[in-house]
């Protein structure tokens, strides 16, 4: 049995992407943690469906979706490996509806307590270190961009982010 899973996320547009990629890279070096692409997850936990099925299901949703604005908010931290330090994303009606549609179409259920965010550090880092880092970076990241494409990422459960592979990008083309 294959242990391949698929994540669905979207990335900021180029200027913001480059800025966040540098922050992620710098923090990962500072804390000896994984480097990963800046992204906002739309399908928490991913899925184990066949790759072609995932692509087709996502295309069906994307065709019905107009590009919309994503706005970042404050930096925050949790005692979770993948949310060690993250930037909160405004829960707009467009974003929540889009994520819910993807979750329902791909996994058959809507994720409870979906909290859109963009992580900038993975790992088990002491809280005082995370708070110091947030203070240095600034509490707020007040930037926004228009979502215009969604990515499908292939990964294996419990493998490092460096092994994750983008297998498809689908542009929003409202019909």
Order of SSEs, N→C? EHEHEEHEHEEE
The CATH top-level class label of the domain at 4-71 and 93-116 and 147-171? Alpha Beta
CATH homology superfamily name of the domain at 4-71 and 93-116 and 147-171: Cyclic phosphodiesterase
- The CATH topology label of the domain at 4-71 and 93-116 and 147-171 is Cyclic Phosphodiesterase, Chain: A
**Rg over alpha carbons:** 16 Å
**Structural shape:** globular
Our measurement of the CA-to-CA distance between the termini, rounded to an integer number of angstroms, reads 38 Å
Total strand segments: 8
Major β-sheet profile: 4 strands, antiparallel
Low-confidence stretches: none
Q: Which sequence of strands runs across the widest sheet?
A: 2-1-7-8
What proportion of the residues form beta strands (DSSP E)? 25-35%
Instruction: Quickly give the structural class.
Output: alpha+beta
Percent range of helical residues: 25-40%
Q: Could you describe the 3D structure shown?
A:
- With 175 residues, the protein is α+β, with helices and mostly antiparallel strands.
- Helices cover 32% and strands 27% of the residues.
- It has a domain at 4-71 and 93-116 and 147-171: Cyclic Phosphodiesterase, Chain: A.
- It has helices spanning 14-31, 51-62, 93-107, 127-137, and strands at residues 4-10, 40-41, 68-77, 85-89, 117-121, 144-147, 149-156, 165-171.
- β3 and β4 (85-89) form a beta hairpin.
- α2 packs antiparallel against α3.
- It starts with a strand and ends with a strand.
């Amino acid at each position: 049995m294959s242990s391949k899973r698929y994540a669905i996320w979207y990335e900021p547009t180029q200027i913001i992407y480059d800025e966040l990629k540098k922050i992620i890279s710098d923090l990962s070096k500072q804390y000896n943690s994984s480097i990963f692409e800046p992204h906002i997850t739309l399908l928490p936990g991913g899925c184990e469906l066949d790759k072609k099925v995932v692509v087709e299901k996502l295309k069906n949703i994307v065709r019905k979706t107009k590009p919309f604005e994503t706005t970042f908010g404050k930096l925050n931290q949790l005692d979770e490996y993948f949310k060690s330090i993250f930037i909160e994303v405004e829960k707009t009606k467009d974003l929540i509806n889009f994520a819910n549609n993807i979750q329902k179409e791909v996994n058959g259920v809507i994720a409870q307590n979906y909290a859109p965010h963009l992580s900038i550090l993975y790992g088990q880092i002491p809280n005082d270190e995370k708070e110091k880092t947030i203070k240095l970076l600034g509490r707020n990241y007040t930037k926004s961009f228009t979502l215009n494409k969604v990515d499908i990422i292939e990964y294996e459960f419990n493998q490092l982010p460096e092994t994750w592979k983008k297998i498809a990008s689908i542009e929003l083309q409202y019909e």
